[in-house]
Give the backbone structure.
Amino acid sequence: MAKENINIGLFGETAVTLELIKLGYDVININSSIQNYKNADLIVMNSKTGKSTMLQVKCGTTKNILVGFTSELDGIIPDLDEKIICPWVFVKVDDNYNTEFYVLSAEEAKTLIKAGNDWYVHGFNRHLKSKPVVGMEILWLKGENTKASATNLKIQHKAFNNPLGHNSENRWDKIKSLLE
């Protein structure tokens, strides 16, 4: 089956669900009862403690995963703080369906999305003509920066300095801490 023939979002949600089940948690996919629920995809529960949390899952097959927001031309993302209400898990899927998981707290997701979008809107030597769709670079999720780029003595874009400064890959401890 070709990758473009599957629902990559559902694949990502299922992959995250399986990881959480391996960790001993119960998981409900909200999207199975509410079509594309806006602020979360999964509810994760610890039956031992009775605690639960919601999770937002974003999945992609390229080095940039779309986050579901559109920015204004000035770089403002409307209602970002109100719409990010829980931890986020980014899932990178390669051509062989191997997965990488990057776990961010709600505050980390807000911080990185705002910083990355500000860099995209203001850090490039160009003028936007339409509202950009907001994406998340995998290298940022790994805690890396983006180097400045220039062509023919013209600055293409300035460097992006990652505000997180740490790798979020397989940081399931961020979910565990909410459920213990």
